[in-house]
Design goal:
Blueprint: E1 2-7, E2 16-26, E3 32-38, E4 58-65, E5 71-73, E6 76-78, E7 82-89, H1 91-99, E8 108-109, H2 110-113, E9 131-136, E10 139-144, H3 146-161, H4 183-192, H5 197-207, H6 211-228, H7 234-265
Antiparallel strand pairs: 1-2, 2-3, 3-4, 4-7, 5-6, 8-10, 9-10
Helix pairs in contact: 3-4, 3-5
């Protein structure tokens, strides 16, 4: 967890506008995600349990940096080559990933569910989108409901379908130039990045796409994305070539060591050299 000053380039370039809390959390498919949100600017204190409002934006933070690079941020030049880009995201996705590791059907208070992910605590009200609830006095307890979770994912997927036309360059095209991957497939591919693996098969079943077909199309799209975008980056291409060269060197060294080991041990007993057949008896 760290605190940094933020440069707001959209409104007042060059003006320091606040502080962010950064926190790494477990993401879907075993990857780590770095989340960020503003700390309470109204006098509250995160450490004391005084959280910012529930409508506080949540961001995914990604670092873009290359050797000997610099960036323009508004009218400011960042010279060290490192630039953090914050993309606003829906906290419900990260709540779903976190909840999916909880025991099924076990009701817990929001404070217990989110005690180890303080960056998500302001968004506890969104648990109702994913969970069954039980009231006990003034307290509310939550248990993940798979059907509610699937309904949330499906609603988000339908929203994405309306926007997938702008991403058509990521997908294969037929002879007429039309994308061979339907908008439904495109939306499912995007939503799968935030869907726990255990729910992905259920989501595919709900939308009528066999999981095997989806995985096959996903593999083609990832390869096409690499060809159309990543491979054009000279630095990334060079890095990939260096990795391939390193693999070849390791394979060659392994083979060489195996030959040396065989020569050191000598030929097995019972074997004869070809010259022994020509020796005088």
């Amino acid at each position: 967890k760290a605190t940094v000053s933020v440069l707001n380039c959209n409104n007042n370039p060059g003006e320091m506008t606040g502080e962010l809390m950064f926190a790494p959390v477990a993401g879907p498919h075993g990857r780590k995600v770095l989340l960020a949100r503003r700390k309470d600017t109204e006098g509250g204190d995160d450490e004391a349990g005084e959280l910012p409002p529930a409508d506080t934006p949540l961001y995914e933070a990604r670092r873009h940096g290359r050797h000997a690079s610099s960036w323009f941020v508004g009218s400011v030049v960042v010279e060290d080559g490192g630039l953090w880009v914050l993309n606003e995201c829906d906290p419900t996705f990260h709540l779903l990933v976190h909840l999916h590791g909880q025991a099924a059907g076990e009701y817990k208070a929001a404070s217990d569910l989110l005690h180890d992910v303080p960056v998500l605590r302001p968004y506890a009200d969104r648990l109702r989108l994913l969970c069954d609830t039980a009231e006990a006095g003034e307290d509310t307890f939550y248990a993940l409901n798979k059907q509610r979770a699937l309904a949330f994912l499906l609603a988000k997927m339908r929203q994405l379908e309306q926007r997938c036309g702008t991403l058509s360059d990521w997908y294969e095209r037929d002879a007429q130039g039309a994308a061979t991957c339907s908008k439904q497939h495109q939306a499912l591919q995007l939503i799968s990045e935030y869907t726990p693996q255990a729910l992905l098969g259920d989501l595919c079943e709900v939308v009528g796409i066999p999981l095997s077909d989806f995985q096959r199309q996903l593999g083609r799209s990832e390869q096409l994305f690499f060809t159309n975008f990543v491979a054009r980056d000279v630095e990334l291409k060079q890095r990939r070539e260096e990795e391939e060269e390193e693999k070849k060197k390791k394979a060659l060294a392994s083979a060489s060591n195996a030959v040396k080991k065989t020569m050191k041990l000598g030929r097995p007993k019972g074997n004869m050299t070809i010259t022994s057949f020509f020796k005088k008896k």
